[in-house]
Amino acid sequence: MATKSANLYARIEPDVKEQAESILSALGIPASNAINMFYKQIILNRGLPFEVKLPTAKPADVAELSEIELDAELEKGYADMLEGRAKPARQVRGEYYRA
C-alpha cells in the first residue's frame, strides 16, 4: 500500500459535509478513505465516476399540465413504483434528513 503523505484541502458546505460524514460513519468509512476511493475511481474511469450533465428535459410543472397530461404523468410514476424504479422520499432526502 502506498504511503499517504499528500494533503487535500477543500471548502465544502457545512450541511453537505455533516450529512455525508454521518452516512460514511454509519458505513464505517472514514472521510479520508472515501475521498481516496473517489480519487481512485476518477483514475479508473479517466474522469468522474458519474455523469455530469444538464437534464435533457425539465421536470413537469403540474400547474401547466392538462388533466390528461397529469393523469399520464401519474400513471408513469405508478408504473415506476410497481417496477421498483422508485425510492421512498426518506431515502431520496437522506436517512438523516431532519424536517
Describe what you observe in this structure.
With 99 residues, the protein is an all-alpha fold. It has two domains: 10-53, Arc Repressor Mutant; 55-92. The protein is built from four helices and no strands. It has helices at residues 14-27, 31-45, 67-82, 89-93. The N and C termini lie far apart (43 Å). The mean pLDDT is 87.
List keywords for this structure.
99 residues; mainly alpha; Arc Repressor Mutant; 2 domains
* Pattern of helices and strands: HHHH
Q: What fraction of residues sit in β-strands?
A: under 5%
**Based on the structure given, which CATH architecture of the largest domain is correct?**
Orthogonal Bundle
Main sheet record: none
Structure described in brief:
This protein is an all-alpha fold and 99 residues long. It has helices at 14-27, 31-45, 67-82, 89-93.
Topology:
Blueprint: H1 14-27, H2 31-45, H3 67-82, H4 89-93
